[in-house]
Write a structure and sequence with these properties.
Elements: H1 3-25, H2 35-62, H3 66-90, H4 98-126, H5 130-142, H6 144-161, H7 167-193, H8 197-222
Helix pairs in contact: 1-4, 2-3, 2-4, 3-4, 3-7, 4-5, 4-6, 6-7, 6-8
Length: 229
């Protein structure tokens, strides 16, 4: 693989992720998060890809059922994204309001998606198939990247919703959020693999529907307040 193919693959993965990151962080523009911590969360998601790839390769060798394999892959990716954001951002003092968990989870998810997309684009670029690389990048921009955002945001919303409650409530919320995230991600994986061209459009449609729900959830978590009694 040439250095130029690697460079353009990384650029094609990172730039769209930064566009989505700018879009979603506008929801937290009143009290924005520290840029160095956001950069660390993004990079943590980037690094989590390596651990996920190793785990997924192992799963591929021991699980023959395709639907189960795609479900487990979704679980691996969601768990490693959560570990990454928990280690880097969720325990810090900057995570000081309910919306912050969603912001950090989405940032980490986009870091993960950026490298994942670059890996998918790298193959066509290495083979000189520029058109296929562009199509792959565009499809992942409107599909797979949003799946990562929506899935991780479910975890962030669950944590934000119980922000003013105790540690036990936060553990339960994290488990529920991860369950929802894995379900969304697995459903997308299985739908895409088993879909024809018309089914693919329908799959993308429900993901965009989930994006609308995500925007509503942002508004809901903004009004979470501690109990006064």
């Amino acid at each position: 693989m040439s250095a130029s193919a690697l460079f353009y693959a990384l650029l094609s993965g990172i730039l769209p992720a930064l566009v989505w990151l700018w879009f979603w962080l506008r929801e937290d523009r009143i009290h924005p998060e520290p840029k160095p911590l956001l950069a660390a969360a993004f990079f943590a998601g980037f690094c989590a890809v390596a651990a996920a790839v190793i785990a997924e390769q192992y799963i591929a060798t021991v699980v023959s059922d395709a639907n189960l394999r795609y479900t487990l892959w979704a679980g691996v990716e969601e768990v490693f994204k959560f570990i990454a954001v928990a280690l880097v951002a969720l325990h810090t003092q900057a995570n000081d309001e309910p919306i912050d968990a969603m912001a950090y989870c989405i940032t980490t998810a986009l870091g993960f998606a950026a490298l994942e997309n670059a890996l998918f684009i790298m193959g066509p670029l290495s083979d000189g198939e520029i058109a296929r690389a562009i199509v792959t990048g565009n499809m992942r921009f409107i599909g797979a990247m949003l799946v990562h955002v929506v899935s991780s945001a479910a975890v962030g919303f669950a944590l934000g919703f119980v922000f003013y409650k105790g540690w036990l409530a936060r553990i339960v919320a994290a488990i529920i959020g991860l369950g929802v995230a894995i379900s969304i991600h697995a459903a997308f994986n299985i739908s895409i693999v088993n879909a024809d061209s018309s089914d693919t459009l329908r799959t993308f449609a429900w993901i965009w529907g989930a994006v609308v729900v995500l925007i509503i959830l942002f508004e809901e978590v903004k009004v979470v307040r501690p109990k006064l009694w």
